[in-house]
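User: Let's play a game. I give you a shape written as tokens, and you guess the letters that built it. Ready? Here's round one.
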């Protein structure tokens, strides 16, 4: 058997196993294996030196920085801000001292970046510290300025900077609250309003390992959520609005005006999507079309991201450059390329402000701005270095974005695309290669590029889509191949032209032209969503496989030597690990208002004592189960009477849901686990999860481990962070409502119109 060496000068061949005179065959084999290992060790050393050479470490710095932020979010208790900052400064000093050491310097630099990320996240939390409501309260009198208004399919939502929050026994008075209101009753941004509401703490994870809505809202400085009770009155403000609120009001007025122009020209979902692409207001899209866009992997079109920024900047850049090139004097004597890049940057900035400047849009603008500044500085437009700078900027401004799916998916896709076009697909960027020429002969170079880009981006984002959303889009490449050329060449340019034409009054036909292109995209989404197997459901898995997969992607994209293929091995391990993740046998919601039991058929049966439909929906999605919360089969394994319920596990053991003290006493002697939405009235021979335990630990998952239970909690004992306090939650208080006059329109939304987190 012949072995061919790797790398330069590695085209020599040798026989394996080598013959060794005077030795037994066994020793010859061992010597051959030893030679191979020594040769491999030498090559690994050479590759390691090459991958840590000058300039090679820079793309790893934001990775280490982000790792430090991620470590911060795993802490059980809130770190002291000066501890992380002090250690980061010490490590920075060590890095300076070790700058001449070939091994010590890279290690010290990466350690400094990790600690700097930890310190930045700690400082961010310290700076934005604000009260968070600890328990639900009804009849809360609120007065303040409306900062955000969101239009949704069945109800609207406002964010209020509260100047007055009053209720009986209210210990925490949040600075900002998010309130759902009846459709059409949300006041405009900048209004000073007063109303009564029912407030609750921001929603904690619905299952262990689930998405932490409370953490997300904390970094938006929202300390309570709820819904209006009664009318919302607009009053004269008791304090000055301030510059930023005046600015937000002006931008919101501009967005509302453009939205009205679009919706009057293009009705229905097409108009709602057109408005989402231009103004960032995507809440009016119907649930049917929204779901189809997600299933077909076209949902990224609805959220203003790097793609939209790139299209806006690209259209402005190329159109302006083409117009300026028509003047020979300018084209030959002036830097029209740089002028065009500056104009594209201004257009991207306006697009950022118009779309609401959310964190995801800020990230897209930063990446676009770095590319355009690179063009003005005569530097390569998009490289791993510029991507690293963009990641640094985003993580410094919003360190919490490292745990958000949009950050993970956008940077994973961009990283994979840049790496592919830098090293893996050179023929796509060089038209002189024979491969590119052959593809171009068939007129398909751009089509092939789109297909490969969609495939690369889809593969790079697949682990994150599976982890966060528990589903994949098998036909995503097909949908993007059919829809994205229309979006890029028709929909977005028409929208930009319509936006420019608004002051002149000629925008209507252009909006309708944009709507026709959107109609094609929606048709593609609905068709793909209707195909058999269009939804690839993936059961939830732990964070471990995602971290391994992320490491594999980084190694595969950032390393230049053959060691990068170790990343592919890690990605394969990720898939195997994720598939082998065991499903929980029992799920208990926060407060024990909902219980899920895995029966002999392997599917969940769910019992609810309250109106908690959100937990059931999340559990089914995380289980890879296509059933809806109202499906009658969810109760097949649960037998109930007036005192409680009994459910059977796959091994025959019983789980009781006790609704009374008598049922609790009886169940303790005949089942292995008792769940009750009340506080346990007495000691019990069986394992007990009651209201107090559930509220102290959040959602709970149990997995059988022989005769014992392996317990995982969303908020484990000792866990105490600003967005998830560890103290037990008192019972809800209700304050009698005073007899006050109200406006004619009631803003209380219907219970069925509420969405998760309300």
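Assistant: Ready! My guess for every position:
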């Amino acid at each position: 058997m012949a072995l061919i060496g790797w790398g330069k000068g590695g085209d020599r061949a040798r026989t394996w196993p080598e013959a060794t005179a005077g030795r037994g065959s066994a020793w010859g084999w061992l010597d051959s294996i030893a030679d191979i290992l020594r040769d491999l060790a030498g090559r690994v050393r050479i590759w390691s030196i090459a991958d840590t050479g000058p300039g090679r470490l820079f793309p790893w710095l934001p990775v280490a920085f982000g790792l430090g932020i991620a470590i911060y979010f795993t802490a059980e208790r809130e770190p002291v801000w000066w501890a992380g900052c002090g250690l980061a400064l010490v490590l920075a000093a060590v890095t300076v001292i070790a700058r001449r050491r070939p091994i010590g310097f890279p290690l010290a630099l990466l350690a400094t970046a990790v600690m700097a990320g930890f310190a930045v996240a700690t400082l961010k939390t310290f700076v934005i510290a604000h009260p968070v409501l600890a328990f639900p309260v009804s009849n809360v009198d609120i007065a303040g300025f409306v900062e955000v208004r969101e239009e949704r399919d069945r109800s609207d939502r406002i964010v209020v900077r509260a100047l007055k929050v009053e209720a009986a026994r209210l210990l925490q008075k949040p600075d900002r609250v998010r309130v759902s209101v009846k459709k059409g009753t949300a006041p405009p941004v900048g209004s000073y309003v007063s109303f009564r509401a029912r407030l609750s703490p921001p929603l904690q994870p619905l299952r262990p390992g689930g998405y932490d809505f409370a953490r997300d809202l904390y970094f938006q400085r929202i300390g309570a959520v709820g819904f209006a009770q009664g009318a919302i009155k607009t009053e004269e403000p008791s304090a000055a609005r301030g510059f930023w609120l005046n600015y937000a009001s002006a931008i919101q007025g501009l967005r509302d005006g453009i939205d009205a122009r679009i919706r009057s020209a293009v009705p229905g979902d097409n108009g709602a999507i057109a408005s989402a692409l231009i103004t960032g207001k995507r809440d009016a899209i119907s649930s049917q079309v929204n779901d189809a866009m997600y299933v077909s992997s076209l949902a990224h079109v609805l959220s203003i991201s790097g793609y939209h920024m790139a299209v806006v900047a690209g259209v402005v850049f190329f159109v302006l450059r083409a117009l300026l090139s028509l003047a020979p004097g300018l084209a030959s004597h002036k830097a029209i390329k740089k002028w065009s890049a500056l104009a594209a940057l201004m257009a991207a900035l306006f697009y950022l402000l118009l779309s609401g400047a959310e964190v995801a849009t800020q990230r897209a603008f930063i990446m676009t701005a770095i590319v355009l500044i690179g063009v003005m500085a005569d530097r390569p437009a998009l490289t791993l270095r510029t991507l690293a700078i963009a990641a640094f900027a985003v993580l410094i401004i919003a360190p919490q974005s490292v745990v958000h799916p949009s950050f993970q998916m956008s940077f994973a896709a961009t990283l994979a695309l840049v790496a592919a076009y830098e090293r893996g697909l050179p023929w796509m960027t060089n038209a002189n290669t024979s491969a590119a020429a052959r593809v171009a002969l068939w007129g398909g170079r751009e089509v092939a590029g789109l297909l490969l880009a969609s495939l690369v981006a889809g593969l790079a984002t697949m682990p994150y889509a599976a982890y966060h959303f528990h589903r994949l889009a098998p036909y995503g490449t097909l949908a993007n191949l059919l829809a994205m050329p229309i979006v890029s060449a028709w929909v977005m340019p028409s929208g930009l032209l319509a936006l420019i034409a608004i002051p002149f009054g000629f925008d209507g036909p252009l909006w309708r032209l944009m709507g026709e292109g959107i109609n094609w995209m929606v048709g593609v989404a609905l068709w793909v969503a209707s195909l058999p197997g269009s939804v690839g459901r993936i059961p939830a898995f732990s964070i471990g496989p995602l971290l391994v997969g992320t490491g594999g992607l980084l190694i595969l994209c950032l390393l230049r030597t053959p060691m990068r293929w170790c990343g592919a091995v890690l990605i394969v391990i990720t898939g195997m690990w994720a598939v082998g993740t065991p499903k929980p046998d029992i799920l208990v919601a926060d407060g024990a208002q909902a219980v899920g039991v895995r029966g002999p058929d392997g599917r969940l049966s769910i019992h609810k004592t309250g109106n908690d439909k959100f937990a059931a929906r999340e559990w089914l999605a995380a289980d890879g189960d296509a059933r809806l919360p109202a499906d009658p089969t969810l109760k097949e394994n649960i037998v109930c009477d007036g005192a409680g319920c009994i459910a059977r596990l796959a091994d025959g053991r019983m789980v009781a849901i006790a609704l009374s003290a008598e049922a609790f006493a009886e169940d303790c002697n005949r089942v292995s686990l008792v769940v009750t939405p009340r506080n346990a009235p007495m000691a019990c021979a069986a394992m007990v999860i009651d209201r107090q335990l559930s509220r102290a630990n959040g959602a709970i998952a149990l997995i059988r481990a022989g005769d014992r239970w392996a317990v995982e909690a969303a908020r484990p004992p000792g866990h105490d962070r600003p967005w998830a306090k560890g103290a037990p939650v008192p019972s809800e208080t209700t304050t009698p409502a005073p007899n006050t006059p109200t406006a004619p329109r009631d803003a209380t939304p219907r219970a069925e119109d509420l969405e998760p987190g309300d």
